[in-house]
Amino acid sequence: MLIARNVSIEVGARELLRDVSFSLQSGDKIGLVGHNGAGKTTLIRTLAGELREASGEIVVSGKLGYLSQEAALSEIEDRQITALERILMARDIGSLERRMESVRRDMEDADDEERDKLIHRYARLDDEFGAAGGYVAKAEATRFAAALGVAGEDLEQPVATMSGGQRRRVELARILFGETDTLLLDEPTNHLDLDAKMWLMDFLSRYAGGLLVISHDLALLDKSITSVLATEGGTLDAFRGNYSFYLSERETRRTQRLRERKHQDAKIARLEEGIRRFKGSSEKLAKRARSWETRVDKLKATRTEIAASRRNVAVRFPQPETTGRTPIKADGLGKAYGDNLVFLDVEVDIDRGERMIIVGLNGAGKTTLLRILAGVETTDLGEVTYGLRASVGYYAQEHEQIHAGTSVIDHMRAVSGAPDRELRSVLGHFLLADKVDQDAGTLSGGEKTKLALAQVVMGQHNLLLLDEPTNNLDPQSKEALLDALTQYVGTLILVSHDTDFVEQLVPDRAILMPDGDTVWFEEELLEMVALT
C-alpha cells in the first residue's frame, strides 16, 4: 500500500507538483500520464524514496519494487555479478549463491585440511540456500528472465558488460521476481520485443499488488490499467477506466470546464458593467456597486481553471553541408567483451542521403556497432573511415551526453558557439525554455531526450547516428521528430524498436546483426524491428 498526502515537489526553485493526494491499494492499477516534463518521473522517484518531497507525507507499507527509466546500475559494487545473480538478489538469494560459488572456487586450490572446512561451510550454505527456496526460485528467476528476452548464456554474462537494453530487461525481471506488494514502473516496455511486451501485459493484468506505471506504450496502458492519474499544471486529476476512457473523459471534462468558465466570465462581465454604471451615481447605487465589487472578487477567486493549450515540440534539422558520396565506411569490424563475442566481420557502406536501420535481436550488437561508427567506442578488429566533409551527430539512448551538475543552457553551449539567444530559441522549440538554468541531471527521461536532440540539431551535422531516439517521448514529440527526419537531407543510421516510427520513416536499407548483412529494407523487416 502507498499513500500520498498533500505532497508538493520542487525542482530547484520551481514547484513541479503541489498538494498531490492519492492512494495505491492492492489491486489498483494506475497509469500516470502527462506530457514530457509534467513531473511524472519526478513524482514516481519521490514515491520510491529517491527524492525528497518539499512538503506533505508519503506512507509505504509492504515491499516496494521500483523500475527507473535509467539503465545505469551504479549501486552494484561487484561489477562481475551476472544477470541471474542480479535477479536473484530481489529475494536475497543471489548473495547466498555468490558465497557458495566463492567457497566452491576456494576448494579447488585448498589443501586437504582446509578443503574439509570448506566442504562443511559449503554444506551449511547449501542447506541455507535450499531452506530459502533457492533452487525453486532459481528456476523461476530463469523463467522470468527468458520471458523478457534474457536467456541462455546471457544469464551468466556480467551485467556491467551488457547493453543498456539488456540491463533494463534484467532490472525489470529482478523487480517483477521480487514478490513485491507495490510496483512503480517507469517506461517498463522500453527495449522489450513484442513477445516480452505481451508477457508483461499479461503479468501486470494478473498482478495482485498495487501498480503505478508510466508508459508511452498505449497498448500497455489500455490492457493493464484500471484508472489514470493525469499530471497537468502542477496538479493531479483522477480518472476511472483505462487510457482510452481517459482520453475521452478528459475532453468531456475540458468541454464542461470551458462551459462553466464561459458562464462565470459572462456573470462577472455583467456585474462589472453594473459597477461602471452605478459607482458614480447616488450613494445607494454606489453602495450596491461596492457590494458587487466584493462579489466579483469572490467569483474571480473561484473561477474554474482552464489549462492553457500546450505548445507543440518543433524539431527542424538545419540543412547541412553536402558530404562526399560515401559519408562513412566500415570494413571488417569485430567486437568482443571478454569471452563474449558480439559480432565479427561487419561491413558498413552507405551512400550520401540514405536512411539505414540496424536491426537484430536484443544483444546482437546494434548499439555497440552504432557507438563504434560514432567513434565513442573502439573496435577490436577492422576500421571506420569518414568521408569528405562528414560531420557526425550521435544520439545515445542512455543520454550519455547529459551530465548531472551542468545546466541545460551549458549543455547547449558545449556543442555550439551560437549566441545564447539562438540557443534559448532552439530550447524553446523543444519546450525547454523554462528549464534553461536547471540542472540537466534533474530532467525527466523525455526532457533529456529533447535536450540531446537539441544538441544534435545545433551541431548541423550531415551524418546522424540515432540510437532509440523515440524512447521516453510523448506521441506529439515523436511525431515532430519523425517530420524533422523525413525532411532531413543528410545521411541517417538508426537503431529503433518503434515499428510505427520506422514504417513511416521508410528506411532505404538495413544491416542485419550480428552477421552484418546489408539488405534493401522491405515491409517484412518490420517484424524483426518489433523483435529487437
Automatic annotation (TrEMBL):
Pfam families: ABC_tran, ABC_tran_Xtn. One of its GO terms (molecular function) is ATP binding. The keyword ATP-binding applies. The keyword Lyase does not apply. Coiled coil: none annotated. InterPro entries: AAA+_ATPase, ABC_tran_Xtn, ABC_transporter-like_ATP-bd, ABC_transporter-like_CS, ABCF_ATPase, P-loop_NTPase. Residues 2-258, 328-531 form the ABC transporter domain. Keywords: ATP-binding, Nucleotide-binding. SMART domains: AAA. PROSITE patterns: ABC_TRANSPORTER_1, ABC_TRANSPORTER_2. This is Bis-ABC ATPase SCO1840.
